């Protein structure tokens, strides 16, 4: 069951000397073309990092929620591109290092992954391959209870679950195992 809470707070709108009150606009629901293909070839940090906090989409553009997932990692760990693409931003936002990558062949507008806090080793315009190093994880911020990478995904202005980029075999917690077959006729 999915519960969505909306804000009942009224916000002032003052345009051209008029004053009015309105409810905040809500984010549009994901459109049918917001399908997320499983294009990732690996995790951005580690083999199967612990997920400290999952994706919790906001009900509106400024509403509470979590617009990505937090993956446990240590400061200095390499942060890697999950899929091929082009770096569209590598710099500091609100004191944190951020890298944003538009993923190749994912539609128009393309899917965009974000990684923070990262000390970037790439720059805007650089092409990256799956597993290519984007930089290293910076020291912890107040965002996580311990060091983590915040990994986000969006198409245009719509936030999406970045875990949807991973194929199912990468999401499994343990190694694959072969099980014995019983009562199967031999060829």
Automatic annotation (TrEMBL):
InterPro entries: Cell_wall_metabolism_enzyme (IPR050570), Dup_hybrid_motif (IPR011055), M23ase_b-sheet_dom (IPR016047). Keywords: Signal. Coiled coil: none annotated. Pfam families: Peptidase_M23. Residues 1-16 form the signal peptide. Residues 65-162 form the M23ase beta-sheet core domain. It comes from the Bacteria. CDD domains: M23_peptidase. Gene3D superfamilies: Glucose Permease (Domain IIA). This is M23 family metallopeptidase.
């Amino acid at each position: 069951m999915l519960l969505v809470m909306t804000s009942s707070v009224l916000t002032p709108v003052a345009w051209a000397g008029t004053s009015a009150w309105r409810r905040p606009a809500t984010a549009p629901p994901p459109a049918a073309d917001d399908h997320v293909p499983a294009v990732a070839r690996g995790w951005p940090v580690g083999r199967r990092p612990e997920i400290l906090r999952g994706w919790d989409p906001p009900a509106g553009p400024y509403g509470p929620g979590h617009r990505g997932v937090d993956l446990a990692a240590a400061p200095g760990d390499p942060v890697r591109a999950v899929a091929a693409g082009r770096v569209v931003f590598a710099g500091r936002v609100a004191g944190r290092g951020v890298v944003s990558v538009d993923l190749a062949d994912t539609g128009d507008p393309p899917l965009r992954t974000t990684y923070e806090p990262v000390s970037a080793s790439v720059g805007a315009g650089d092409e990256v391959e799956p597993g290519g190093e984007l930089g290293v994880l910076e020291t912890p911020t107040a965002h996580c209870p311990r060091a983590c990478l915040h990994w986000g995904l969006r198409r245009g202005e719509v936030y999406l679950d970045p875990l949807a980029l991973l194929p199912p075999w990468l999401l499994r917690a343990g190694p694959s195992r072969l099980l014995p077959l019983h009562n199967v006729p031999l060829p």
